Amino acid sequence: MVHRSGASRPRQVELIWNITLVCPHDCKECCTVAVHVTRRGGQIHLSTTLTEAEQMPYQAGKGTVFDQAMAHRQQQGLELDLAGKLRVLEHLEGVVPRIDFSGGDPLAAAQNLQVLRVAAQRFGRQQITLTATGAGLTRCIPEEIAPAIGELNLGAFFLKRHKVD
Which pLDDT tens digit goes with each residue over 120-152? Predict the structure, then answer.
């Protein structure tokens, strides 16, 4: 894009990135077909409205059930690993992105907070939006997440649960 002055300006890009489909909720109105993750005894259950439930063993000391479910999906090639997510950010060099991190619940798995931080450092926190269910936020200290996001949107589940109109 060329400005009136003749200088070229980087192209602006708006991006909604479902950084993970892993989610602690099973909302019927979900528009991303998120992967509902629960723990029952020694098993982690993963299910969507479109697929049969899948089970995997819970491994103590290997992160939360959500971290383990996302790692499992990454091993299956269904989600990007951390290196892949950081490559996406690298490919945005040369443009001015406005990124809305969504999902599932972007903060259900700890790895995604690191991606948000890198995105904020690279593009500026005002270019970063977090759209979440609210569940993943309970794992974060506000002072940790605030420097990485310019805007926070809470999904329908949070609003219904807390009776916000």
Answer: 999 999 999 999 887 777 777 888 889 999 998
Pairwise CA distance, residues 116 & 101, whole Å: 8
Lowest model confidence (mean pLDDT) among 3-7, 93-97, 107-111? 3-7
Q: Tell me the chain's radius of gyration from C-alpha atoms.
A: 17
> What is the SS3 assignment for 64?
coil
- The model's pTM: 0.84
Q: For the residues of 69-94, what is the DSSP string, one character each? A: HHHHHHHTTSS--HHHHHHHHHHTTT
Task: State CA 139 to chain mean position distance.
Answer: 14
User: Could you give the 3-state DSSP secondary structure of residue 42?
Assistant: coil
Place of tokens 């029952």: 40
